[in-house]
Amino acid sequence: MKTRYPQGENLTVSVAKGLCILLVVVGHSGCPDLLGRFIYLFHVPLFFFTSGYFNKIAEDFGTLKQRLWSRVKRLYIPFVLYGLLFLLLQPLLIRVGWEVDDGRSLLTKSLLMLFKMDPPSVLLGGFWFVRSLFIAAVAADIVLFLVRKRVPVWALFLFFAFVAMGLKSFPPGTPVVRQLSLAVLGMVFFLFGMVYRSVEGRWALLSKSWMLLPALLVLLSQTLFYPGDLSISCIGALDTGVFIATALIGIYFVMGVSQWLSRSVLMGPFRYMGNQTLVILALHFLCFKLVSWAAVALYGIPYGEIAGSVVLSGLPGGWWLLYTLAGIGLPLLAGYLFDLLRSCRKS
After folding, report:
1. What does pTM read for this prediction?
2. Which of 34, 117, 24, 25 is nearest to 323 (CA)?
3. CB neighbourhood size of 34 (10 A)
């Protein structure tokens, strides 16, 4: 029987989201340094890009309010729910030695979670992205509404790219600047998603498969030879400008690969991962602990090392693959069982 997909779903973007969350987990798994450098060139920008790809400008205040409420329902509320889950689990996780007590009270963690979107547990550390995406998407929606039809999206994209470069010029310890620069960078790639969608059908060159080769060569050369930090955490105007340009090339490369995958037998698994990004992002650090526990038992590593880092360092080559398998497979299993239980209750 032929599988039916929701009408209007863009399978290329769904697959790209699946590739992106896979790269996020690999990047956190203790993978080889060069692979990590390659991934960090574009994997976070790709998430902002896929969120902006389908975005439309709110033409009236009522539509803007609906859009902002949608952001709250899809980003803020899940953030709080997962935060509450980890707050409930935290005493047990500390007791079994999978997390270190940071000394903050339950009230402090709860207030920071609700009003600052600060993850209440280090095991939910990947959720910094949900906070940044929420801020970037809300800010982009408001800016686009205020300047609608007067300033083209591509001009806003360029403007905020220069703003991000300016913010990254401040010393790293400058108050507020780090979070603000992350939000502005998020807006840059969010807006690029809108720009890309508006031109992809008109620029024939974007659809040429041979263009993926020079894009890959640029990414590989940046991985091997660029002396600075090309990631979302880069510092300085120059590195930020190079990072933005490199990330755009990486986004184009992943979209091209995703278009090919969307026509292959691998489309189903990547599409499913792309539709489960939030559960993977929330649970993969926790699932890593199971792999670390197995490594501790196998190699006689001090048990306290489990709580001290996301993954254990110094393990023989190949353990990052086990971390990746657990970080993807177990959250997907948990999500599947939860959906199955919910469907059973409804029936």
Report:
1. 0.92
2. 25
3. 11
Q: pLDDT tens digits, the chain, 347 residues: what are they? A: 234 455 557 899 999 999 999 999 999 999 999 999 999 999 999 999 999 999 999 888 999 999 999 999 999 999 999 999 999 999 999 999 999 888 899 999 999 999 999 999 999 988 999 999 999 999 999 999 999 878 999 999 999 999 999 999 988 777 778 888 989 999 999 999 999 998 887 766 666 777 899 999 999 999 999 998 899 988 889 999 999 999 999 999 999 999 999 989 989 999 999 999 999 999 999 999 999 999 999 998 998 899 888 999 888 888 999 999 999 999 999 988 988 888 887 76
**Buried b vs exposed e over 288-323: b needs ≥16 C-beta within 10 Å?**
bbbbbbebbeeeeeeeeebbeebbbeebeeebbebb
Listed in sequence order, the residues at least 6 apart from 270 whose beta carbon sits closer than 8 Å to its beta carbon are 14, 15, 18, 19, 22, 258, 261
At position 249, the amino acid (one-letter code) is: I
Taking alpha carbons only, the member of 11, 53, 76 closest to residue 189 is: 53
Residue 137 CA to residue 17 CA, distance in Å, equals 17
| Residues in Cβ contact with 219 at an 8 Å cutoff, skipping those fewer than 6 apart | 38, 41, 42, 246, 249, 250, 253
Report the largest interatomic distance among the alpha carbons of the chain, rounded to a whole angstrom.
65
Counts for the chain of helices (H) and strands (E), in that order = 15, 0
Instruction: Please name which of 73, 71, 66 lies closest in space to residue 138, comparing C-alpha atoms.
Output: 71
Q: Which amino acid is at 308?
A: G
Residues 54, 16: Cα–Cα separation, whole Å: 14
- Enter the tokens of residue 225: 């030879």
